[in-house]
Amino acid sequence: MGVGLIFAIVLILIVLIWVFIEFKRMKHKLFAIILIFAILFFYFSMAYVFSGANVDFKSYSGIKHATNLYTSWLFSAFGNLKSITGNAIKMDWSSKNSTITK
Description:
- The chain has two domains: about 1-50; about 55-100, no CATH class.
- Helix content is about 75%, strand content about 0%.
- The chain has two helices and no strands.
């Protein structure tokens, strides 16, 4: 009985140490994954926004126009997301499936 208890305690300590070490590595991996997704979002959203527009990146006025175009698209997208979230919150998610009115 004593050897089994000691073996279980040692096994639990080994697992806890392994989880702690993996958690420290996971923080760095998580940061890298978030950074990769941010770069991909930035690239694909810029490709989408600038696909129909003639933007000249060689001049200051072209870069200013591109910045204004992208920021207006970004604020519009987040505004739409806010509106969708607000409408989803107002909905009644009970079994009656009706909308809450104030």
